[in-house]
Amino acid sequence: MPAVPESATAAASAAAAARTKAEYASLVTAAATGERGAMERLLMRAQEVAYRFSLLVCGHPEDAEDVMQDALLKTYEHASRIADPSAFRTWLYTTVRNACLMKRRRHVGEPANFDSIEQGNDRGESSEGPVQVVDRSTPVDEQMIQHSSDERLRTALQSLPGPHRMIVILRDIEELSTREVAEITGYSEANVKTRLHRARLMLRRRLEAR
Amino acid sequence: MNTSAPRPAACQQMLAGIAHYLDGELDAVACAEVERHCETCVSCAALIDSLRLTVGLCRQAAALTLPDDVRVRARARVERLLGTPLTE
Ligand SMILES: [Zn+2]
């Protein structure tokens, strides 16, 4: 069965991503000028990003509420003195990412698994077996997980090495551009692309394995 | 599909461009080459299809909203911060 040519898919997705970026910019601009409804929507959205990041990227739903609180306060502060609204979305994801990292570092006796999302660590990249990136001994809020997207996808995501997981989530779920992901993660754009491709291949294999 | 089986050289070369193809970064000529190859190569066509499906699944997950109880707490935090009940 030949693949159906769908170059339009990528173009449509790029347009959707740009729209969201522009949407963020206009929302933060409106919030900064004192529009109450815009500020409310912005603060809710910041918390949604924080929630998804904690749950999907970090695999630590029990951190979500703290990371949401942090994103809320920082967004409120940042929005009131925003210089470049178009940079807001990148700022938000960077802030949430840092909050997740800080939160993990504060855990006593935390295994090194989470650190893998911040470093270009190549552990497990060439191995066929699942890579242990989540601390299974951590109590998990079952209700949050049931409500979260597709359980199968979530499990498959958790089996990816940290950097790959973060990149595929930012690019394919949050639909940020390669450039934005490079800014947020500190990887070069070329590195983001390579890891994204590798992540999709791994993800596909994990999804087909069940 | 057996992903561990060695692929012919033509496929190997094509697969290198798949990532760019999926992200719409190939020019028209390179795109047409990939598509022409897929018309006759079942395994490359299947790989592209399944990768596209994987990306599609991810895109759907973006619709993930807050569970009700989490949303209630998120709204309460906004109300506390702004000092008044939410307008929406
Ligand atoms: Zn082929």
Most extensive contact = A-B, 56 and 51 residues
Our count of helices of chain B gives 5
Mean pLDDT of chain B: 86
What is the gyration radius of chain B calculated from CA atoms? 23 Å
Name the helix and strand elements of chain A from N-terminus to C-terminus, one letter apiece: HHHHHHHHH
Gap between N and C termini of chain B, in Å?
51 Å
User: Could you report the average pLDDT of chain A, rounded to the nearest whole number?
Assistant: 78
**Number of distinct helices of chain A:** 9
**Rough outline of chain A:** globular
Question: What is the structural class of chain A?
Answer: mainly alpha
SSE series of chain B: HHHHH
- What radius of gyration of chain A results from the CA coordinates? 18 Å
Major sheet summary line of chain B:
none
- Looking at how many chains there are and whether they match, the oligomeric state comes to heterodimer
Return the CATH topology of the largest domain in chain A.
Answer: Rna Polymerase Sigma Factor, Chain: A
Number of domains of chain A: 2
SSE blueprint:
The complex is a heterodimer of chains A (210) and B (88).
Chain A: H1 7-32, H2 36-57, H3 64-79, H4 88-106, H5 142-147, H6 151-158, H7 162-173, H8 178-185, H9 189-208
Helix pairs in contact in A: 1-2, 2-3, 2-4, 3-4, 4-8, 7-9, 8-9
Chain B: H1 9-16, H2 18-22, H3 28-40, H4 42-61, H5 68-82
The complex binds zinc ion.
Residues 11, 14, 37, 41, 43-44 of chain B line the site of zinc ion.
Write up this protein.
The complex is a heterodimer of chains A (210) and B (88). Chain A is mainly alpha-helical. Chain A folds into two domains: 8-107, Orthogonal Bundle (Rna Polymerase Sigma Factor, Chain: A); 133-210, Winged helix-like DNA-binding domain superfamily/Winged helix DNA-binding domain (Arc Repressor Mutant, subunit A). Chain A has nine helices and no strands. Chain A has helices spanning 7-32, 36-57, 64-79, 88-106, 142-147, 151-158, 162-173, 178-185, 189-208. In chain A, helix 1 (7-32) packs across helix 2 (36-57) and helix 7 (162-173) packs across helix 9. The longest helix of chain A is centred in the N-terminal third of the chain and has 26 residues, at 7-32. The two termini of chain A are 22 Å apart. The model of chain A is unreliable at 1-5, 111-115 and 119-149 (pLDDT under 50). Chain B has 88 residues and is mainly α. Chain B has one domain (9-82). In chain B, helix 3 (28-40) crosses helix 4. Chain B is rod-shaped. The mean pLDDT of chain B is 86. At the A-B interface, helix 1, helix 2, helix 3, helix 5 and helix 7 of A face helix 2, helix 3, helix 4 and helix 5 of B. Zinc ion binds at residues 11, 14, 37, 41, 43-44 of chain B.
